[in-house]
Amino acid sequence: MDKVYSSAKEAIADIPDGATIAIAGFFTAGVPRVLLKALIAKGVKNLTLACGCGPLVGAPEELAQLVKNKQLKRVIDSYGLYRSASKGAKDPFEQAVRAGEIELRIYPMGTLAERYRAAAAGIPAFYTPTGVGSVVEEELISNIEDQRKKKETRIFLGKRYVLEYALPPHFAFVHAYMGDREGNLRYRMTARNFNPIMAAAAGVTIAEVENLVEPGKLAPDDIHTPGIYVKRVVQVPRPKFAITID
Amino acid sequence: MKFEGLSREMIALRASKEIKDGDYVNLGIGIPTLISNWIEGRDVILQSEIGMLKTGPLALGEGVDQDLINASCQPVALLPGTACFDIVESFSMIRSGRMDVVVMGALQVDEQGDYAGWANPARGLMGVGNIGGSMDLAVGAKKLLITMEHITNDGQPKIVKELTYPATTEGKVNMIFTDLAVIEVTPKGLLLKEVYPGLTPEDIQSVTEPKLIISPDMKEIEL
């Protein structure tokens, strides 16, 4: 079973307008930037990018281009904006969020992790203690007023919990340190983060790998993402970037 | 009235004394991160929500590896025994109450132990903001410490009767460390335990909205 595609362009060729794509990575670590660049080149629009913790803050050139091309309908994240208010005021993404041109939906990070996990595990929804006593308990947080919805809560053993739903993306873009032709993946240190759970949650997972190896080169005990979750593999150069966010 | 007080580094030093050997600890962005400078060499294990236990000190020069960052996006070093794992594992250990101590910055804390740290309405972002891991960390912490300046840049109290900013969590804060004072959140109210040398309880009260209870053992902050 050979899942290798010759280029990122070929690997994302069937992504349609309106797709929901999970983008792995935590700020600068483990972000699938080659696949993001291919998405920009393809020019598909009306996209929902489902993130975990600021992969687009960690890939500012790609984000600026996606905003400029008006490809984004919605971004889901726990940390989607610059920390610095002055830097944010000049950021094209934040300007589009303020103008209501892009919908930004915010969740606690652990709730997002669990929403992907539920999707990966075939569980439709779950109760979590996170967000109780905050607006998260009462409503979906969004910059678009009519997207705000009340959430259900329930008391278990005297404590209140919030109902959150599985988040199954159509596609996932992940970045791995090593992968074989059959889609088994291994990540490196803190570049692992959201990669394995998004790979498992999506309908079609596309993996960019720094090192492409033959089956058998990754020892069975060293595989983080089993190949069943990965539909396509593309080899990319090891990225180089500045480690910084503002 | 603006009083002279501790620097951010010294607030971090004072808060670091509340961490016991053997504790698993998560430090938020800002003053909390500075605590890592004061616990080097101690038997304390730092968790970073990106997916790391036994997070090492900041890495410099040759030691920088782009696949090894903390949750504030700073390059860090490995230590003997450092473990890396994925985000689901990371938040499972956070949410299920394994963190002995969590230290966070705050925009406001109120006398019920609620705190606000994720959205500043003044930024005018229509209610959205960066939550990150703060709500999971706050809900799962065995002990939640807040480190912050006592008042805002324009002189408003940050310790208030009721939050006016959006809450991160309710009723979870145990202690507040500022440049001017150390305050414990108790069921009866805020207990003033330590003050910056030279300041009186009346001085602290003048920049604090809720009524403070003065501890009978109140003393000057010791570093």
> What is the class of chain A in the CATH system?
Alpha Beta
Structural class of chain B: alpha/beta
Instruction: Identify the CATH architecture of chain A.
Output: 3-Layer(aba) Sandwich
Q: What is the CATH H-level superfamily of chain A?
A: Glutaconate Coenzyme A-transferase
- Identify the strand order in the major beta sheet of chain B: 4-3-2-1-5-8-10-11-12-13
Number of helices of chain A: 8
Question: Which SSEs are present, and which pair or pack?
Answer:
The complex is a heterodimer of chains A (246) and B (223).
Chain A: H1 8-11, E1 20-23, H2 33-42, E2 47-50, H3 60-68, E3 72-77, H4 85-90, H5 92-98, E4 103-106, H6 109-121, E5 125-128, H7 135-138, E6 141-142, E7 153-156, E8 159-165, E9 171-180, E10 185-186, H8 195-201, E11 204-213, E12 232-235
Parallel strand pairs in A: 1-2, 1-9, 2-3, 3-4, 9-11, 11-12
Antiparallel strand pairs in A: 4-6, 5-8, 7-8, 9-10
Helix pairs in contact in A: 6-8
Chain B: H1 8-16, E1 24-27, H2 31-34, E2 45-48, E3 52-53, E4 83-84, H3 87-95, E5 101-104, E6 108-110, E7 115-116, H4 134-140, E8 144-147, E9 159-160, E10 173-177, E11 181-186, E12 189-195, H5 201-206, E13 212-220
Parallel strand pairs in B: 1-2, 1-5, 5-8, 6-9, 8-10, 12-13
Antiparallel strand pairs in B: 2-3, 3-4, 6-7, 10-11, 11-12
